[in-house]
UniProtKB/TrEMBL annotation, chains A, B:
Keywords: Aminoacyl-tRNA synthetase, ATP-binding, Cytoplasm, Ligase, Nucleotide-binding, Protein biosynthesis, Transferase. CDD domains: GlyRS-like_core (cd00774), GlyRS_anticodon (cd00858). Belongs to the class-II aminoacyl-tRNA synthetase family. Residues 129-153 are annotated as: Disordered. GO terms for molecular function: ATP binding; glycine-tRNA ligase activity; transferase activity. Residues 229-536 form the Aminoacyl-transfer RNA synthetases class-II family profile domain. One of its GO terms (biological process) is mitochondrial glycyl-tRNA aminoacylation. GO terms for cellular component: mitochondrion. This is glycine--tRNA ligase. SUPFAM superfamilies: Class II aaRS ABD-related, Class II aaRS and biotin synthetases. It comes from Amorphotheca resinae ATCC 22711.
């Protein structure tokens, strides 16, 4: 892997980054005061709370998502319950199949996720091998130059056993890692045996992998017999409401529903912060499309020429991870991406991630391998973002085919189909059976219904044969399992079989579903990593270059000092910003102006307005931009006008600097 | 109870109202296709999904809430997990006390909530009594005049046993009902026995009430030993993060945190639609305030003169439900409402409900009685809204005192306090113990620590006594449970006890919490009831007069017909509305214009823009207002300008009608 750099070109270092995120309360482990309490029994891993800036950032990402997907395409947004009766997930297949493979430590009873165990151990061995060969990556070299890393490096080397591997073994490890998501439980068990993989924590052997269902189970209502689960995805709520949504949409196809809400997965052993959590916010679209005609999309031309970085399943199965740049148009044409609608949403996802400030050099789309795909999917592409933990799946874009609607329809007996008027009525030549029910009833009495059903069940081919026999012999014999004698003789007075033309004016079909599914928390984490850097030479002065569109707070409003003459100006500006709908923080604490700016650089606040002595003289104020720390000075109206433009995205800072006078004044040093 | 009227003055009828809500998919029972599926086992009661208009209405209510509370007062919004380890709810008291009283039907095994059972049975008996006496309420009379109600009335009378009660018995029933929320399990059991209350469904006797805990239980992580619950309120997540929030707020008091999220209560037998559900959206504020100085609020003057309708606890305990109008200032002054901060939030709640369109004649604040109050509360006022189900608690406003922070602090050992610099340092005269540790150590060796702890634990009074003894005898004997001999002799060379003045420059205190807590789903339901009416004489033409601020969609955009010449105008207008950030629906279906207006009246869309033949001629469009059905006609710019003002609330329809020319054109009849 190439070195992970920040936007300033330096190496990304997770330690000061995590310290910043914690210090500014973007998020925090839930129930932290309990984790260290004496006698506390409980599992709080994989649970995180968002503090004020994290909460605002999350709300802004969700708001952008809603505008970009729901409003842009008039999707039908729904809000369905998390609590779901067992039967629904039995039908969808989640009760049987929504599991991860889990190994138990044979001695200390630890539970480990099998694929992660193998990954961790093999990656550690490969690292040890590199160390033994004296090969260091670009990343290692970069860090070597940073004295702050010396201690950490020493510790890291201690964790890794420096052992040289055979060339063949090293290659085998690399190939296993490229394919790691494609192994089933048996195969994972074999790999563990073959490569003597043990729990790194204590070096004990582990028991063979067993499936562990990831859904949280509970009981609904006062009787213990009603089992329920917390949904692991928002999709099923949308599927079971399909009929009502289609009706709400006045029967028109294609259409999409969308949902933003919490989902739950009982992860076996969550360790990587916000990236693997047990409770998380999802935003999902279910786009319903006619499976006939190649799943075209009417707006496909808007994404056709967009270039994306793809890692297809064939490449991965061959044991490597090389990506290629393709236009979405070419990818669909060459069937790398299965169809236009899937391709359209890959493009829309790409645009969304760019809009909120993801580093586009750190985005790829990876196709699922056959065994990796969820039990319902026909094709699936993940948008993966590169972080210090490697490539992280943040958005899934799956073609779920007609799977979900079909299984729910079958289980409930409710027709989850679209009835469409045929432009050209369909004419079907077929053998039809005419029964004289007035005679059939008296003849078979109680058995009449069984006879009738048996006749109706006869295939077209058999009907033709019966037609011939009836013409020749005047009577046919038909199997009727419902009668004591098991069959019935029917003569011409009772039955006739004739060839006729039937005209079908409508067509019923089960729509296929294309599902873009977003993990908001993962996206938020990656965005924080991607926008983090520090002022050159000063790791203590971190910055989050979050775009104004999603920044938690848009403006920091500060008086130069606590001098009382500034107060009325700050109050008036605050009220004007509120009227303009621009979120802002007032910081009138006694800290130096530099410290207050720094604090807000860490909060990702893009703009700063300062009230100083000149404000009192001539009613001008200064406007500071976070990334450049450059300032301009102008009248209140001009500055607020610029802020509105900057926040709405109708102007960029480079333009503002050109048209408003630069200000070089207050020092940012403390 | 007085007759429940709609805004047009007619009687509110729940049947066409519910049909409208269902038809327009505001909300719908969850998993409905499963409820009727053959062989389905599961409990889906109390679970509802929001369809597109309900989802948008909910989002707009939440958005208004966030602006009205969070942004207005710079509250610290957090998003905490629903999953909570058992220990947290053991500490908060929910594991022991968060229960309802439940009776089991002795024969058919039904579970019934005890207080609701008594209410239902006694109310039915009182109805039967009225019928027997030939007394009909205003409401009954009103309904009698409506032929649509004839059939329903007949059915209702059939359900009620027409039996005249003794005057005393009737009065007793009324008193029980006024106090119903104040009985504990034993008392409920006695009432059931005394009044021979049985399950109305089958008339079986019921077993004595037992407590049923309302929290959903689950297991977190792969080991079954880690019990967790779904939170029944968002509050605890805010309390356990108190220390971090205070720090984020740079130590400044008072401050508030806020949270918007789902909570869960495993209701015993939910029956009343959206009003009693098992999964619901809450919005809660935890306002932390210094308990000293009477819990004043700096903005109290803003609500002081506001008049509110109050039903205090004394009135209820006296067995009646008369309300009185008071200003909040008077209520606080006379201690009807305990303190300024509580009063301030009663006022803010009042303003919020008015803003979103609640009928203010149908709002009262009811105080909790002692037994009714949650285990943590010191005083509590509910904002109740009047509906066809009676008065419904929609917002609670509780003074939780220092309860929560104290119990969490005690359990975890984490100091959840505010440290405040004292303006005037506090001087405390006290007995201090000086120990010569250099001598104590060698003398008691392993026991030295126990001796030291025993000395430190001595009270001020004892210290004075010891001081005297030491002066007199030169040695004291102190109990030390940690020593084998259980005590220790300490002479003057080891210890001295002297009177000194200690100066405290800081003060530590546990803040009290004032908690306004909103059930968004209940508010949404009441708002729908309050804004529902139908065009005079035509129950089929329902209207929801939801204010523009929270209406699901602000504008309906329709071409007069499907004539292709209208298309480019509709497209352009749609794009301009999107740029203006005004949510709108285009309906270019073939239905008549009257039908399309009607559909949107039912969706609560306040404004309609029509493109017609004059638009093609002179680029003017019409603007229709939902409640009056009046229209104006003007240029595109003038109409869009008016729409922006109307939606932002800077102009009302009456003003628009005055300045733009009226239009009398397209008929609304079909």
């Amino acid at each position: 892997m190439a070195v992970l750099t920040t936007r300033s070109g330096g190496a990304f270092d997770r330690t000061p980054f995590e310290a910043l995120v914690k210090r500014r309360l973007f998020y925090t482990p839930s129930f932290e005061i309990y984790r260290t309490a004496s006698g506390f029994v409980g599992d709080t891993k994989g649970l995180f709370d968002y503090g004020p800036p994290g909460c605002a950032l999350q709300a802004n990402i969700v708001d952008t998502w809603r505008k970009h997907f729901v409003l842009e395409e008039n999707m039908l947004e729904v809000d369905c319950t998390v609590l779901t009766p067992e039967e629904v997930f039995k039908t969808s297949g989640h009760v049987d199949k929504f599991s991860d493979w889990m190994c138990k430590d044979s001695k200390n009873g630890d539970y480990l996720r099998a694929d992660h165990l193998i990954e961790n151990v093999l990656e550690a061995r490969l690292k040890g091998d590199k160390a033994a060969r004296g090969v260091s990556t670009e990343e290692d070299k970069e860090k070597d130059n940073d004295p702050a890393n010396a201690k950490k490096k020493k510790r890291a080397v201690k964790d890794v056993k420096v052992v040289k591997l055979d060339d063949d073994v090293a290659r085998e490890y690399e190939e296993i890692l490229a394919r790691i998501d494609n192994y089933d439980g048996t195969e994972l068990g074999q790999l563990i045996k073959k490569h003597d993989i043990r729990n790194p924590d204590g070096n004990n052997e582990v028991l063979p992998p067993v499936p562990f269902n990831l859904m949280f189970k509970t009981s609904i209502g006062p009787s213990s017999g009603s089992i329920g689960y917390l949904r692991p995805e928002t999709a099923q709520g949308q599927f079971v409401n399909f009929k009502k949504l289609l009706e709400f949409n006045q029967g028109t196809m294609p259409f999409a529903s969308a949902s933003i809400g919490k989902s739950y997965r009982n992860e076996i052993s969550p360790r990587t912060g916000l990236l693997r959590v047990r409770e998380f916010l999802m935003a999902e679209v279910e786009h319903f499309v006619d499976p006939e005609g190649g799943k075209k999309h009417v707006r496909f031309d808007e994404v056709e020429n967009m270039e994306v970085l793809l890692l297809d399943r064939h490449t991965q199965l061959a044991g490597n991870t090389e990506t290629k740049v393709m236009t979405i148009g070419d990818a669909v044409k060459s069937k790398v991406i299965d169809n236009e609608t899937l391709g359209y949403f890959v493009g829309r996802i790409h645009m969304f991630l760019e809009k909120i400030g993801v580093d586009m050099k750190k985005l790829r789309f990876r196709q699922h391998m056959a065994n990796e795909m969820a039990h319902y999917a026909a094709d699936c592409w993940d948008a993966e973002l590169l972080t210090s933990y490697g490539w992280i799946e943040c958005v899934g874009c799956a073609d779920r085919s007609a799977y979900d609607l079909s299984v729910h329809s079958k289980r409930t007996g409710e027709a989850l189909v679209v009835r469409e008027a045929r432009e050209h009525p369909l004419k079907i030549e077929e053998w039809q059976v005419d029964i004289d029910k007035k005679k059939l009833g008296p003849k078979f009495r109680k058995g009449a219904k069984a006879v009738e059903e048996a006749i109706e069940a006869v295939t077209q081919q058999q009907r033709e044969t019966f037609h011939e026999i009836l013409k020749k012999d005047g009577v046919i014999t038909i199997d009727v399992p419902g009668l004591p004698e098991g069959k019935a003789d029917l003569d011409k007075s009772l039955i006739d079989i004739v060839r006729r033309t039937r005209v079908e004016n409508t067509r019923d079909y089960t729509p296929n579903v294309i599902e873009p599914s977003f993990g908001i928390g993962r996206i938020l984490y990656c965005l924080l990593e991607h926008t983090y850097w520090h002022r050159p030479g000063d790791v203590a002065r971190g910055v989050l270059s979050i775009p104004p569109l999603v920044a938690p707070t848009k403006v920091l409003l500060v008086p130069l000092s606590r001098s009382p003459e500034f107060k009325p100006y700050v109050k008036k500006l605050s009220s004007r910003l509120r009227t303009l709908g621009i979120s802002h923080n007032v910081d009138d604490s006694s800290a130096s102006i530099g410290k207050r700016y720094s604090r807000n650089d860490e909060l990702g606040t893009p703009f700063g307005i300062t009230v100083d002595f000149d404000t009192v003289k001539d009613e001008t104020i200064t406007l500071r931009e976070r990334d450049t720390t450059k300032q301009v000075r102008a009248s209140v109206d001009d500055v607020l006008g610029a802020v509105v433009n900057l926040v709405n995205g109708t102007e960029i800072w480079a333009d503002v600097v050109k048209r408003l006078p630069e200000f070089v004044g207050q020092s940012e040093d403390e």
